């Protein structure tokens, strides 16, 4: 009830019944959707751009180096004992896990956009710190630089969990309308897989030949990510899934039940405005 105030009693029942009617009607008429609808409208193309960014940024922020080549990173800064490396890896994973839980509990209070901006900016600054400390240790062997690099590794896991952990999947589902949600979510996963493939073959070669200098690439790239997030990511906090279509499509968005579509999308299907032939409760 609290999510539908001020509706209550009979008004609440009528509202819910009408929403069900609209949803059923739209589901009948949109039983099939094609991939081309992802690019059919300006709003959908914007969604695809965000989906591509989510897929790329979540796999290409330097996280693959920490996840798959942590032992190499630790070797570079003097932590060569296997037991010590396992302990560091375990502690880092646990810290990232609890950070993800904290993010999930705070996302509705803080909002998506602030978390994305903070996380991506912090990742960029942290990678800069990793680059500097690793460079100093390589050139001087200073233990303080090695410890600074280790601290940066732990902080990277924290910042990554904030920006590209569970929030990634939550946001991916929110930005797409019901009829395109599965395809949009699949697009994010496809792009993730492509960049996982790239990481698999590029990172080992780059790490072996460039050592700490390879981090410079991520300093630049993560800076681009932070700028992109700031200018293009849209806030969806406090907006019902049925209403998010209006953020992307403006006045052209048609909202009914759980399905949000633009008039242009409806024209592609040869469907009339659902509100012109759905029988309303008050008219029954």
TrEMBL record:
It is found in: Membrane. Residues 48-284 form the Major facilitator superfamily (MFS) profile domain. It comes from the Eukaryota. It is a multi-pass membrane protein. Gene3D superfamilies: MFS general substrate transporter like domains (1.20.1250.20). GO terms for cellular component: membrane. Pfam families: Sugar_tr. The chain crosses the membrane at residues 48-71, 87-107, 114-137, 149-172, 184-202, 214-233. One of its GO terms (molecular function) is carbohydrate:proton symporter activity. InterPro entries: MFS_dom (IPR020846), MFS_sugar_transport-like (IPR005828), MFS_Sugar_Transporters (IPR050360), MFS_trans_sf (IPR036259), Sugar_transporter_CS (IPR005829). Its main location: membrane. Keywords: Membrane, Transmembrane, Transmembrane helix, Transport. Belongs to the major facilitator superfamily. Sugar transporter (TC 2.A.1.1) family. This is Hexose transporter HXT15. It comes from Sugiyamaella lignohabitans.
């Amino acid at each position: 009830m609290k999510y539908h105030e001020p509706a209550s009693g009979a008004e609440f029942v009528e509202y819910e019944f009408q929403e069900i009617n609209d949803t059923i009607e739209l589901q009948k008429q949109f039983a099939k959707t094609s991939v081309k609808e992802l690019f059919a409208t300006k709003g959908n193309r914007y969604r695809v751009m965000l989906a591509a960014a989510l897929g790329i940024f979540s796999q290409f922020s330097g996280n693959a180096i920490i996840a798959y080549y942590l032992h190499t990173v630790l070797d570079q800064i003097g932590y060569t004992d296997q037991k010590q490396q396992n302990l560091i890896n375990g502690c880092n994973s646990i810290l990232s896990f609890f950070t993800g839980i904290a993010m999930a509990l705070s996302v509705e209070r803080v909002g998506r956009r602030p978390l994305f901006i903070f996380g991506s900016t912090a990742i960029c600054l942290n990678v800069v710190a990793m680059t500097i400390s690793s460079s100093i240790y390589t050139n001087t062997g200073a233990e303080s630089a090695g410890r600074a690099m280790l601290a940066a590794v732990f902080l990277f896991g924290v910042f990554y969990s904030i920006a590209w952990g569970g929030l990634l999947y939550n946001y991916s589902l929110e930005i797409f309308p019901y009829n395109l949600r599965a395809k949009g979510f699949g697009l994010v996963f496809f792009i993730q897989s492509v960049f996982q493939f790239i990481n698999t073959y590029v990172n080992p070669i780059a790490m072996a030949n460039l050592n700490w200098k390879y981090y410079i690439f991520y300093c630049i790239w993560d800076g681009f990510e932070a700028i992109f997030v700031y200018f293009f990511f849209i806030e969806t906090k406090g907006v019902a899934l049925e209403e998010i279509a209006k953020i992307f499509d403006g006045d052209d968005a048609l909202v009914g039940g759980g399905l949000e579509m633009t008039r242009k999308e409806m024209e592609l299907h040869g469907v009339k405005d659902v509100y012109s032939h759905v029988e309303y409760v008050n008219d029954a």
